[in-house]
Amino acid sequence: MFKKYHTCLLLCLLLLWGCNPKPANQYKVVKIKDGDTLGLLSNDNQQVTVRLAEIDCPEKSQAFGKAAKKFTSDLCFGKDVTLIGNTKDRYGRTIALVILPDGTNVNYQLVKNGFAWHYKAYSQSAELAQLEQNARENKLGLWQDANPTPPWEYRKEGRSSGYDNNPYKKHYKRKPKLEDVY
């Protein structure tokens, strides 16, 4: 009788443990698109694209762009994360702070280690400003360059020059019409 009671109790505990859902703002990191953009999977298996709030990493084609992506990947790929914030940008991405289970703020770690700028146009955070200043003074990450180009300026230069700076983007010419050939 006593053994049967323990087995039943253990089974009930396992069922209750298995039914305990994750909080609504908790996701699994399944893709690193670039240093400041993640692909997440929600509890109901919906994919969500998240742009890290208050920071801007170098573009992939810029110096330290690939290093920023690798740093982000090493820090959070495959982990469960919590989002703080749920506004959307013009591309439909969720803008948020990303927090690891141990409380580490991914956004702040990128700035602290010199892989992102504090995006002052969208943030007034004194803490982020100080983290960027410390990274600059210690020449961490992108601050090893004498005069790194902020990604917002890099993107603006690409638009104003009339061509796309992305060497990986394919450009297709239209096929000539038959009358154009003869």
Describe the structure in your own words:
The chain is an alpha+beta fold and 182 residues long. It has a domain at 22-144: OB fold (Dihydrolipoamide Acetyltransferase, E2P) (Beta Barrel), CATH 2.40.50.90. It is built from six helices and seven strands; from the N terminus they run H-E-E-E-E-H-E-E-H-E-H-H-H. The protein has helices spanning 2-18, 65-76, 106-112, 126-137, 151-160, 178-181, and strands spanning 26-34, 37-41, 47-52, 55-56, 80-88, 94-99, 117-118.
Assign the structural class, choosing from mainly alpha, mainly beta, alpha/beta, alpha+beta, or little secondary structure: alpha+beta
Strand content: 15-25%
- As an assembly, this protein is single chain
Overall pLDDT level: 84
Task: Report how far the terminal alpha carbons are from each other.
Answer: 95 Å
Overall, the morphology is: globular
CATH architecture of the domain at 22-144: Beta Barrel
- How is the biggest beta sheet arranged? 5 strands, mixed, barrel
Counting DSSP E segments of at least 2 residues, the number of strands comes to: 7
What's a concise summary of this model?
This protein has 182 residues and is α+β, with helices and mostly antiparallel strands. It has helices spanning 2-18, 65-76, 106-112, 126-137, 151-160, 178-181, and strands at residues 26-34, 37-41, 47-52, 55-56, 80-88, 94-99, 117-118.
